[in-house]
């Protein structure tokens, strides 16, 4: 039976502020899952703490709302234990690029076949809008008393230099385009990173929907706005690595694109490499039974419910002088 986006809707009240980009991201996620034909029991969302961290409550699938910044270790553990699950880690830029940035970098080295999406609003929304690591230098948003004194970090650059094999940026209010990016990220063989520009109308009054869409840059003759957002795929940009020798050339090209910000903000796929072995491939090489019998599928008790694992040996070991 064909699935509908409503099949991924829960009864939990969506308490994000009116006009928040998170609503559009939620819709994109639900439509993407239905178009991929994934049953809710095949998917697990893992989030940290933040407004964006509430997403697993609103999507009917498995979900874990875990600790601030610890989204990726949880998500990776789930995927390694049960590689049949489609794992989608999700959170804010504060969660993933502040407290969680060490995990963000190290996840790239493993290339686990899963998705990580960041709702990138430049602020810590849930805790009332402090500057987050992606807020650009010199910006004064309404919840901070003076201009941001720190440089903003570039999540696309970090992902590219950390080994992510699919690196893309979406924009919440180009929702159909975002939905397509989510589908491609899920279908990608390897670790996919999706940086999603997400207006936070309550605390970030600079990077607003109007700003991204260039309302302040009307052509004097036509009165038409000049959007800052543009799509990489409409410029002939080719992100795909087709042979090993191309890898660094494509990373360098993607970094060049990642530097663009201000009058021109690219969205779309910056880099895609399916030639690198996934973590699953790597474990399968080392532990041949892993793929047939991963940890989550191993029997832990016999037919009478008696544990097969004998922890007495372990306890004896721990107690030994
Ligand atoms: C260990 C720990 N440190 C700090 C906090 C406080 N805290 C809660 S959410 C949050 C940041 C939220 O910002 P972000 O991750 O960007 O998500 P958003 O709310 O913008 O979606 C912080 C610092 C916490 N809950 N736990
Ligand atoms: S505070 Fe910002 S990010 Fe959080 S729900 Fe409101 S608008 Fe969205």
Distance between the termini: 61 Å
What is the number of E strands?
10
Radius of gyration: 21 Å
The helix/strand order is: HEHEHEHHEEEHEHEHEHEHH
What characteristic shape results from the CA principal axes?
Answer: globular
Helix proportion range? 25-40%
Overall pLDDT confidence = 96
How much of the polypeptide forms β-strand, as a percent range?
Answer: 15-25%
Q: Assign the structural class, choosing from mainly alpha, mainly beta, alpha/beta, alpha+beta, or little secondary structure.
A: alpha/beta
Sequence stretches where pLDDT stays below 50 over 5 or more residues: none
Name the strands of the widest sheet in spatial order.
2-1-3-4-8-7-10-9
User: Count of DSSP helices?
Assistant: 11
Bound heterogens, unique:
thiamine diphosphate, iron/sulfur cluster
State the major sheet.
8 strands, mixed
How does this structure look, described?
The structure is a single chain. By secondary structure, the protein is of the alpha/beta class. 31% of the residues lie in helices and 15% in strands. It is built from 11 helices and 10 strands. It has helices at 21-36, 55-58, 71-81, 93-99, 101-110, 155-162, 175-187, 209-212, 247-258, 279-286, 312-319; strands spanning 43-47, 62-65, 86-92, 115-120, 123-124, 130-131, 166-171, 192-197, 229-231, 265-272. Strands 2-1-3-4-8-7-10-9 form an 8-stranded mixed beta sheet, sandwiched between helices. The relative contact order is 0.12. Bound molecules: thiamine diphosphate and iron/sulfur cluster. Thiamine diphosphate (TPP) binds at residues 49-52, 68, 91-95, 119, 121, 123-127, 132.
């Amino acid at each position: 039976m064909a699935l509908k986006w409503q099949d991924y809707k829960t009864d939990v009240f969506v308490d994000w502020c009116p006009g928040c980009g998170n609503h559009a991201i939620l819709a994109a996620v639900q439509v993407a899952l239905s178009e991929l034909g994934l049953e809710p029991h095949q998917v697990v969302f893992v989030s940290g703490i933040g407004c964006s961290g509430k997403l697993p409550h609103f999507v009917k699938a498995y979900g874990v709302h875990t600790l601030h910044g610890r989204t990726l270790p949880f998500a990776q553990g789930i995927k390694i234990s049960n590689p049949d699950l489609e794992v989608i880690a999700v959170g804010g830029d504060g969660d993933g690029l502040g407290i969680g940035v060490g995990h963000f970098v190290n996840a790239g080295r493993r290339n686990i076949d899963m998705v990580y999406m960041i709702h990138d609003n430049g602020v810590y929304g849930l805790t009332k809008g402090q500057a987050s690591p992606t807020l650009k230098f010199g910006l004064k948003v309404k919840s901070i008393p003076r201009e941001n004194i720190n440089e903003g970090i570039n999540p696309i650059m970090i992902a590219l230099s950390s080994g992510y094999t699919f690196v893309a940026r979406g924009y919440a209010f180009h929702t159909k385009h975002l939905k397509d990016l989510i589908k491609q990220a899920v279908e990608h063989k390897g670790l996919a990173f999706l940086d999603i520009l997400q207006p936070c109308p309550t605390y970030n009054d600079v990077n607003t929907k109007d700003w991204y869409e260039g309302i302040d840059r009307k052509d004097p003759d036509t009165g038409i706005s000049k959007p800052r957002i543009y799509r990489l795929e409409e410029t002939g940009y080719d992100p795909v690595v087709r042979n090993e020798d191309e890898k660094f050339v494509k990373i360098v090209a993607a970094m060049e694109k990642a530097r663009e910000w201000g009058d021109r903000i690219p969205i779309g796929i910056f880099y895609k490499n399916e030639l690198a072995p996934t973590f699953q491939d790597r474990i399968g090489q080392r532990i041949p039974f892993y793929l047939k019998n991963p940890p989550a599928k191993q029997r832990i008790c016999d037919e009478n419910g008696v544990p097969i694992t004998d922890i007495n040996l372990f306890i004896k070991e721990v107690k030994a002088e």
